[in-house]
Amino acid sequence: MNKKNYPSYQVIDSVDLRPFDNRKKDFGVGDYVETLGFVPQIITLLENSIEQIHSHNGVIDNERIPYLWCAERAMPGGNVWSKRDLYGLVESVHAYGSKFFMGALACPNQFAEYDTRAEWLYQHSDVFDLFIRMKDGSSTADTNGHINPLRRLPDGRFYEDVFIEETLRYLEDYDMDGFYGGDGWAGLLVPLTDGDFHPDMIAQFEEFSGIEVEGATTVQQAEFILNSKENHRRWIEFYANRWSSFYKKIHEAFHRQGKEFMVIDPWARGPVDALYDFGFDYKRVAPYLDGLCLEAREQNWGHRTGEWLYVWETGERVNIPCIRAQAPDLKLYWSACICNAPEHWVVSRDTINVIERESLSLPNLSYVNDKGDYCRALEGLHLIFGTDLTKEEWRFLDQRWDLAYNLSLDKVFGPAIVWSDAVEQYHLDRMERWEITAAVQQMNYAGAPVHTAVNSRNLAAASCDAYLLVDPLGITDEEVEALLQKQKEGAGLIVMGRVEHPKLLEALGIRHADTGNAAGVEYNAKAAEGIGLMKEAPYLKADHRDVGDFIAEDAEVICSLKTKLGDRVLLSYKKDEGNGPAAFIRRRNCWPDTPCRGRYFKDYAHFVSECPDEMDKLMSDLIAKASSAPFTVDKGQLYLIGTENGYTHIGMGNMGNIFSQITTVCSKDRIVHFDDYDFKRNMSSGYILYDTQPHRIQVKVPMDGAITLKIKCREDGIFEEK
């Protein structure tokens, strides 16, 4: 194999030492690359503890490396390696043109199942006292061993100073190119509401905020911080400041010696939820990271452990574009679950439809830059872990990644989510979470083609079909003027949630009214039909998400809530001559709070029962209409990308469904050519059905899977290839 056979996208491959063989001259690197079918730009030795670095004595000899550092969780099946072997492996990887990173988790590999624990941190806890103090006063030293790298050591030194010195020495000795911080290096391994309430973090918080924390015990101090909105907000800001200063110091020291520093994300969170839950601000840390990997891991967490909200594709179609809209300079990678035998999952055998759907969708997420161009939101892939896959399984995945990453993003159809720093700050100041993820995610479930975002700073240069605002409280006059200018140029304006800005209210054709409790739903079939929505809506009903606090002035009311105070707008539409349409949706989806990170559903059945209702589907259709989407679907998830030669790449998903389904794709124009991609024909992952209608196609989409099409249309139904 050509030693420079890189894929067209960036690949960071995280492994333990099991795929290599220290009995071979090249330490098995050639065999591993042959199995992969490509050469990763970076190979990372992950699933280690930081003690591997701190216990390094500067000597590389034939001393054996503890087996726990050779195979994840000390799983049987690997070789025993020496320090000299590891050095030889690094040089063999370099011979293929790849970089080699040391990686570590923020825990000392304590796993009861395997009866394994890395002991060095415990043995040296008098110096490295880093275990997290939970809000109930307990310590992670007694449970899972999670540590807090933001702490000061007992002798007063900041841990990062020791980390920088000893990690750089380790990287230099082994000729490695950088460090990869795994779980717990970007946000702690516990939410801010649980820890770290160690006396040192309390002292650091007091120094930062000027607040004197009251309470004689950890429990009392945690309550003092969390039970006050102002104190809790400052606690969040303290951690955000602490992470950015931590990375800045590391970045400067590493780059002086030509080394890189990358991390994995705070549990798949988007910009808002990462900040609230873990005190992690993507925008603030972006200048100091060489890359960040986002754990969009529906095929693992979503289907195995109930981590629903953030890791499912529909949520990442919100989070990933919004991260890049907020922090365009941050190199973001999809941290994809491939195979992890020690954790008992092999995706390509367990949920192959899911990994295929994600592989064809996530790499095509985009954001709009300051020049108005659609840019791919993900630089590439971070693989966790590919150790146990076969050559054939790698070919299956590689084909799909190649297709997705090599599609040209000439045009992204559908509305762009508008990211506003002002709106985010407004909500944070009031400690009211900006529910942008949940609101748009539910629309994605219902079929709205929402998979791009734009920062409000870039509105002037943007040329999107429509702009989607979620709960835009605190939006600035300048942002509103920019949006209204886009509307004058013909773009749609879509607002979900609450509205206060007078010019936005005027553009939407609504005004505030006294709130009334919903007693029923009134559907205006004539108005809906007039703009091309469904003619009948027999199953529309209101629920707890629907609030009646607006009435229409000069907007067409499509759906209203019946209250004792009169009708209140739930959905409305306004189209002035010469302007783009303005759509208003009062329902604002938000998921209930739980102490678990994203585990908002008890089990799969509970999740399926919470799928979109008919009102959500009507709202989704209104979004598609207001954004002049060229295609719509009657069920399932949809994304639309304009590519070369007049073709539109269409992806249709069927997530959250335990049955295969027939999806109807409707086009505004006559379809003159359509086809599936060659490698997907006649496979179990979906197929095209026969349909005689010139404006529609029917496709069979498997449970939790997807089908992708390329379609060419013309209004007159005639197309001549040039």
Detailed description of the structure:
With 722 residues, this protein is α/β, with parallel strands linked by helices. The protein contains 22 helices and 31 strands. The strands form six sheets. The protein has a ten-stranded mixed beta sheet with strand order 11-10-15-14-16-17-23-22-21-19, with helices on both faces. It has an eight-stranded parallel beta barrel with strand order 1-2-3-4-5-6-7-12. The protein has a five-stranded antiparallel beta sheet with strand order 13-25-26-31-28. The protein starts with 9 loop residues before the first strand and ends in an 8-residue tail after the last strand.
Question: How are the secondary structure elements laid out?
Answer:
Blueprint: E1 10-15, H1 29-36, E2 42-45, H2 51-54, H3 83-95, E3 99-104, H4 120-123, H5 159-173, E4 178-181, H6 199-209, H7 218-226, H8 229-256, E5 260-264, H9 271-278, H10 282-285, E6 292-294, H11 298-304, H12 313-326, E7 332-337, E8 339-340, E9 345-346, H13 347-350, H14 352-361, E10 366-368, E11 374-376, E12 380-384, H15 391-406, E13 411-412, E14 415-419, H16 421-429, H17 436-445, E15 452-455, E16 466-470, H18 477-488, E17 492-496, H19 502-508, E18 510-516, E19 520-523, H20 525-530, E20 548-552, E21 556-563, E22 566-574, E23 582-585, H21 604-609, H22 614-626, E24 631-633, E25 637-642, E26 648-653, E27 661-667, E28 670-676, E29 687-689, E30 696-701, E31 706-714
Parallel strand pairs: 1-2, 1-12, 2-3, 3-4, 4-5, 5-6, 6-7, 7-12, 10-15, 14-15, 14-16, 16-17, 17-23
Antiparallel strand pairs: 8-9, 10-11, 13-25, 18-20, 19-21, 21-22, 22-23, 24-27, 25-26, 26-31, 27-30, 28-31, 29-30
